[in-house]
Amino acid sequence: MALRSISRRFGSRVLSYRSSSVASLHSHATSFGFQQVKEEEKSKLVGNVFTNVASSYDIMNDVMSGGLHRLWKERLVGKLSPFAGMKHLDVAGGTGDVAFRIFDAVNSVKRRALRKVDEDSLEETQIYVCDINPNMLNVGKQRAAERGLGDNKALVWVEGDAEALSFDDNSMDGYTIAFGIRNVTHIEKALAEAYRVLKRGGRFLCLELSHVDIPVFKDVYDLYSFKVIPNLGELIAGDRESYQYLVESVRRFPPQEKFATMIADAGFEKVEYENLVGGVVAIHSAIKL
Amino acid sequence: MYRTAAKRLLGAGLTTSRLLRSTIIPSSYTSNLCTSLMGHTESPIINQSGPTAASSSSSSSTGTGEGPRRKPRPEFEEEQARVLSASLRHVARLGWTEEAMMAGSRDVGVSPSIVGSFSRREAALVEYFMDECLQLLIDRVDSGLDLQNLIPSERIPKLIRIRLEMQVPYISKWPQALSIQAHPVNVPTSFKQRAMLVDEIWHTVGDGASDLDWYVKRTVLGGVYSTTEIYMLTDDSPEYRETWAFLDDRVKDAFDLKKSIQEAKYFAQDIGAGVGKSFQGLMNGVMQTMSTRGGGSTSAF
């Protein structure tokens, strides 16, 4: 009880890593950035955030990361190594960045190999893009139409919750979640769902903003996060609070090792992570066996 | 399979390869046993050796599931070995490629996505094959290959022949395997595997009567093996007769080379001795004259 009120007083401006112990209060409270909110409220609040940012999501990504987010997503898809005939699920992939990349990888480069392996042509590649927020999905559908993929049956846009997926058990070859898992109320549930829908041998890949430990760089990064990003949010997207929430939620997310342990607890094998840009971003990968 | 995996994990030293054979209890197997007995979901962190992605840290752990009611799930290493083993059947048709590995994974009943998680994809398949062949060679030798009646320069060709014949089913795609092994990223592992192979052959042959250095022996044999391997790629003769003839010639050359080097060494020593003696004599003469002259000059004072 006392801890909860202390963290409220600390508020959203002060960096307090010690208050991460409060995050262990799973039952009725969860974190929304540095605020403590009721669980039921969190998904609503997150929903609001993304309804507000949907239209300028892509531009803000470019500005905040200096265009680096594209490289990170390329790396994610490279690690996935997509193949023709695969069933892939991209969760929280609203605007379709990762999905489009997977689609391109499967269809352009590997087409040469398609002719060699006859079995592959029996199965159609299916990329499901799942997002809890319909606005984000609409932006994604729009982008697909712009690329001429509007009618393509390979891309399927589904509205759904990462904690309660509507897909069958053992149906997916790959599962990716890029910059989405920190917005989930119960991370363990999302991981368990990921485990459920993946086939045997299926891969789980998570790209997420993570913790930096390098001494001087850490301070630079903190400065950038808390001073520059909310201002950019106000300037470009007209929404300071949402981007304040974003940088806070990054700090509240478990560090790389802890998250890796959580993934292993969900039943995955060969859990590994790779830090990019000194830990600003981490790609966790695992296999279901 | 465990032996080779354990060998690679432990980065077996060249001379300890024989010791490892008899005392293997792979650590991963025992830990799997322990956790399934305890019905625990907590997993021991096992550091996987081998190259991982370029940037800083990576860790790996194995989870074993909910409890004793689920059957113990296979370790990733085992699963990888099964997929690679199944993939070998497709190599003749698809080459040492990801497609072959995906076909192999389908055979085993695992999603082809697993191929994406093998470090250095195609190289994993080639290295698995090299390990398997080495293991087969060791098994052949252990199961009583008759080498007693042969002199060393005949034992070596026999062993190399046995090993190269294992590659015959894949010979059409072997150039691809060689080029994969030559990639800078893959060179450390392929070099180590070849070194282990050469070491194994020398062990089996037994130390012949030779004065050459340990390293030189293995380098020479490595050279003979590689050149024969490459010769075999372009050999069309029935049952590779010409390759074996080439092999015999090269081994003879190597032994002749050894003898020539020895002779050259003795020759050099003799010359050195001769020159040394005459030089010594010269120096002695010089010293003597100097001392008599010096003695003479002092006596003048």
UniProtKB/TrEMBL annotation, chain A:
Gene Ontology biological-process annotations: methylation; ubiquinone biosynthetic process
Keyword Lipoprotein attributed: no
Any Pfam family matching the protein: Ubie_methyltran
Binding site for S-adenosyl-L-methionine: 95, 131, 161-162
UniProtKB keywords: Membrane, Methyltransferase, Mitochondrion, Mitochondrion inner membrane, S-adenosyl-L-methionine, Transferase, Ubiquinone biosynthesis
SUPFAM superfamilies, A to Z: S-adenosyl-L-methionine-dependent methyltransferases
Similarity remark: Belongs to the class I-like SAM-binding methyltransferase superfamily. MenG/UbiE family.
One CC-aspect GO term: extrinsic component of mitochondrial inner membrane
PANTHER family tied to this protein: 2-METHOXY-6-POLYPRENYL-1,4-BENZOQUINOL METHYLASE, MITOCHONDRIAL, METHYLTRANSFERASE
Membrane disposition: Peripheral membrane protein
Gene field: BnaA10g11360D
HAMAP family hit by this protein: MenG_UbiE_methyltr (MF_01813)
EC number: 2.1.1.201
Top EC category: transferase
Organism: Brassica napus
Location(s), subcellular: Mitochondrion inner membrane
Pathway: Cofactor biosynthesis; ubiquinone biosynthesis
Protein name as catalogued: 2-methoxy-6-polyprenyl-1,4-benzoquinol methylase, mitochondrial
Subunit-structure text: Component of a multi-subunit COQ enzyme complex, composed of at least COQ3, COQ4, COQ5, COQ6, COQ7 and COQ9. Interacts with PYURF; the interaction is direct, stabilizes COQ5 protein and associates PYURF with COQ enzyme complex.
Top-level taxon of the source organism: Eukaryota
Catalytic activity: a 2-methoxy-6-(all-trans-polyprenyl)benzene-1,4-diol + S-adenosyl-L-methionine = a 5-methoxy-2-methyl-3-(all-trans-polyprenyl)benzene-1,4-diol + S-adenosyl-L-homocysteine + H(+)
Entry GO MF terms: 2-methoxy-6-polyprenyl-1,4-benzoquinol methyltransferase activity
Role of this protein: Methyltransferase required for the conversion of 2-polyprenyl-6-methoxy-1,4-benzoquinol (DDMQH2) to 2-polyprenyl-3-methyl-6-methoxy-1,4-benzoquinol (DMQH2).
UniProtKB/TrEMBL annotation, chain B:
Role: Membrane-associated protein that warps the membrane surface to access and bind aromatic isoprenes with high specificity, including ubiquinone (CoQ) isoprene intermediates and presents them directly to Coq7, therefore facilitating the Coq7-mediated hydroxylase step. Participates in the biosynthesis of coenzyme Q, also named ubiquinone, an essential lipid-soluble electron transporter for aerobic cellular respiration.
Pathway listed: Cofactor biosynthesis; ubiquinone biosynthesis
Coiled coil start-end: none
Keyword vocabulary terms for this entry: Lipid-binding, Mitochondrion, Transit peptide, Ubiquinone biosynthesis
InterPro entries to which the protein is assigned, alphabetical: COQ9_C, Ubiq_biosynth_COQ9
Taxonomic source organism: Brassica napus (Rape)
Positions of the UniProt region annotated as Disordered: 42-77
Subcellular location: Mitochondrion
Pfam families: COQ9
Name listed for the protein in its UniProt record: Ubiquinone biosynthesis protein
Compositional bias of kind Basic and acidic residues: 67-77
Family: Belongs to the COQ9 family.
Residue ranges of every copy of the COQ9 C-terminal domain listed in the record: 187-257
